């Protein structure tokens, strides 16, 4: 099919630069500045047309590099100009349709081979994974062209995936954008940025002001409900570090505990002054301890541990101030051994405080499979003061990162049974009672579980390796 022309896009685009803090995938935690774009298709205001048939229709143009590759999320080559040079299998785009009706599909591409292309539009609510499709024979081309793919009907509002694939199973090549037009695009929302991570979502646990500077222990139980690759469920975070569990690869899972250095170096730990460096005091059996950079700097530790979906895991944090330093120690409950096991203990300079700014979060730390949903429960959350008083954390504040502000709206938090939960990714609508707006308070109303007995609390280690 030859080159065609279509009405110019009438969408409005808003540019924002939110600040994003995210946990480091393998060796630490981070702060990164991300560019965030959000697009909502709108029909521009104009004088009434004499001939309604000639009124322009809204157009939504999705840069090719916003698509997700399947079945291998890494089986794609992208360029910063928005194009996809090569994609094995399927390239999938996600759109939240506010309206129903006809949807015209067109593909913008550059030099590419001839082949038959199929486009299928599937509601995320469809349990059978089926939807209307159109198949087009594309000729070989040596320069930019826009090829009409055909028209389908969007029968219900909500998230849909648009699947592009060659009918012969060959690779997609040199795609520039997928262009949508027609009545179904009115009010439609899609993400235009290359970042394909799901938005990060958090629970902040407020502590009574009279006691917020006196929290010595922090306890949380975590129950993962999904476990996609490149997921981090962080249990016990505080102003100086974080402690949680990660799906690190297809064959490896980890427990990760890290503490930030003092100072403001964000990239190279070699540039951090000696008196700003976090020092390792002790680590548990088989724990790897080193350092991290590029997203802040600090001391990192991890233990390869094959945690399983649906089980509940216990995390425990301790803070011991010593002058202008604080020693932070993290333990994990090994159920099979029925005991707390040390992960690591780090001495943080220029601190001298106990645990502050308590929080948990869900993170998709690699930008290839943010179309998969992450779901985790954080329950039976307790803190203990230095005088021995246990405080039940029954309220939390839901927040999200900058990506969740306008790009990725498939994120929420709430209460499920006795626990808080966080969901991110999946391109699905949140439950009706979920918290969506950043800063929304959440209250747990179910029966609170038991905190660890005082006699069960482990003693902070001395310098050197400490086996379980």
Describe the structure.
The chain has 468 residues and is mainly β. The protein has 2 domains: 35-46 and 55-191, Galactose-binding domain-like (Jelly Rolls, Sandwich); 201-456, Jelly Rolls (Sandwich). Helix content is 1%, strand content 49%. Strands 23-24-21-20-19-28-17-31-34 form a 9-stranded antiparallel β-sheet. Strands 18, 22, 25, 26, 27, 29, 30, 32 and 33 form a 9-stranded antiparallel β-sheet that branches.
Q: Order of strands side by side in the largest beta sheet?
A: 23-24-21-20-19-28-17-31-34
Low-pLDDT sequence parts:
1-50
Q: If you compute it from the alpha carbons, what radius of gyration comes out, rounded to the nearest whole angstrom?
A: 25 Å
CATH topology of the largest domain, by name, is Jelly Rolls
The major sheet is characterized as:
9 strands, antiparallel
Multimerization state: single chain
What average pLDDT do the residues reach? 89
Percent range of helical residues: under 10%
Number of DSSP helical runs: 1
Estimate nothing, just give the exact number of structural domains. Answer: 2
Structural class: mainly beta
The count of β-strands is 34
Entry keywords:
single chain; 468 residues; mainly beta; Jelly Rolls; 2 domains; nine-stranded antiparallel β-sheet; 34 strands; 49% strand; elongated; disordered N terminus
Topology overview:
Elements: E1 12-16, E2 19-24, E3 28-33, E4 36-40, E5 59-63, E6 68-70, E7 76-78, E8 84-87, E9 90-97, E10 101-109, E11 115-123, E12 133-138, E13 145-154, E14 158-166, E15 172-181, E16 189-191, E17 201-204, E18 215-224, E19 231-237, E20 241-247, E21 253-260, E22 279-283, E23 288-292, E24 298-304, E25 313-322, E26 325-334, E27 339-348, E28 359-364, E29 374-385, E30 390-392, E31 395-400, H1 403-406, E32 411-416, E33 419-424, E34 440-443
């Amino acid at each position: 099919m030859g080159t065609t022309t279509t009405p110019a896009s009438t969408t409005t685009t808003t540019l924002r630069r939110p600040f994003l803090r995210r946990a480091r995938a393998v060796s630490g935690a981070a702060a990164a500045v991300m560019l965030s774009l959000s697009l909502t298709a709108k029909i521009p205001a104009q004088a009434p047309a004499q001939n309604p048939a000639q009124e322009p229709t809204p157009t939504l143009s999705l840069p090719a590099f916003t698509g997700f590759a399947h079945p291998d999320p890494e089986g794609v080559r992208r360029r910063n100009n928005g194009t996809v040079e090569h994609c094995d299998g399927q390239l999938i785009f996600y759109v939240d349709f506010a309206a129903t009706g006809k949807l015209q599909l067109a593909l913008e591409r550059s030099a590419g081979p001839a082949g038959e292309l199929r486009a299928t539009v599937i509601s995320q609510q469809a349990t059978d994974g089926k939807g209307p499709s159109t198949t087009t024979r594309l000729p070989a081309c040596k320069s930019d062209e826009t090829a009409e793919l055909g028209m389908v009907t969007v029968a219900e509002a909500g998230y849909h995936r648009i699947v592009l694939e060659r009918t012969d199973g060959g690779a997609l090549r040199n795609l520039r954008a997928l262009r949508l037009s027609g009545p179904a695009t009115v009010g439609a929302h899609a993400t235009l940025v290359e970042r394909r991570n799901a938005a990060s979502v958090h629970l902040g646990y407020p502590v009574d002001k009279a006691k917020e500077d006196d929290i010595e222990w922090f306890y949380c139980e975590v129950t993962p409900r999904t476990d996609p690759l490149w997921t981090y469920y962080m249990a016990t975070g505080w102003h100086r570090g974080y402690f949680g569990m990660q799906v690190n690869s297809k064959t490896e899972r980890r427990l990760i505990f890290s503490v930030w250095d003092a100072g403001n170096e964000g990239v190279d730990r070699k540039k951090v002054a000696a008196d700003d460096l976090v020092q390792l005091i002790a680590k548990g059996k088989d724990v790897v301890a080193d350092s991290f950079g590029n997203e802040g700097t600090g001391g990192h530790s991890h233990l390869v541990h094959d945690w399983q979906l649906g089980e509940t895991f216990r995390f425990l944090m301790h803070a011991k101030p010593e002058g202008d330093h604080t020693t932070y120690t993290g333990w994990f409950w090994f159920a099979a051994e029925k005991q707390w096991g040390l992960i690591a203990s780090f001495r943080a300079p220029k601190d001298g405080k106990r645990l502050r700014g308590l929080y948990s979060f869900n993170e998709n730390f690699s930008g290839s499979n943010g179309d998969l949903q992450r779901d985790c429960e954080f329950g039976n959350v307790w803190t203990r003061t230095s005088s021995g008083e246990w405080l039940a954390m029954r309220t939390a504040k839901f927040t999200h990162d900058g990506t969740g502000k306008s790009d990725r709206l498939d994120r929420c938090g709430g209460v499920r049974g006795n626990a808080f939960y966080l969901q991110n990714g999946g391109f699905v609508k949140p439950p009706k009672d979920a918290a969506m707006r950043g800063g929304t308070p959440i209250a747990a109303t179910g029966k609170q579980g038991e905190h660890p007995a005082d006699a069960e609390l482990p003693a902070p280690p001395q310098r050197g390796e400490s086996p379980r």
